[in-house]
Amino acid sequence: MIRLRKILLVEDNPEDVELTIEAFSVQNLANRLITLKDGVDVMEYLLYEGAYQNREKENPAVILLDIKMPRMDGIEVLQAIRTNPELKNIPIVMLTSSREEPDLKKCYELGVNAYVVKPVNFRDFFEAVKHLGVFWAMLNELPQDGGNINE
Predict the structure, then answer these.
(1) Which pLDDT does position 136 carry in this prediction?
(2) Quick one: which of 35, 55, 52 has its CA closest to 44?
(3) 74-104 per-position pLDDT tens digit
(4) Structural domain boundaries enclosing 64
């Protein structure tokens, strides 16, 4: 039996979260979508700290990460993940409204797997998220251990 890995969505805009959930549903992605609102939460989740200390020992198939967030922004999260040997292989897609060249350059310098600017149009956003989900959750191959902490 194939075990579907979780998708981690880090987004502070509730409307974008709702659209992402709907797009995955329409695409019939069976992967469980975990949603977090800021970078501090995602690091606690990945490091099994705080409210997440007893969660199942498994890294997500992919992290869809916004840049502009409270407490710890997406670029800081990306840097923290890429410098952690136990997390560095997790695929990360920046899913952001930022078209700023410095953000784009910094993300690629830090090792982001993809940088997707959220389309303004509802239908275009919906389509982009559907395709991201299929590729990263279903088609992308990860190393055998997936970068899991417990292996």
Answers:
(1) 52
(2) 52
(3) 999 999 999 999 999 999 999 888 888 999 9
(4) 7-133
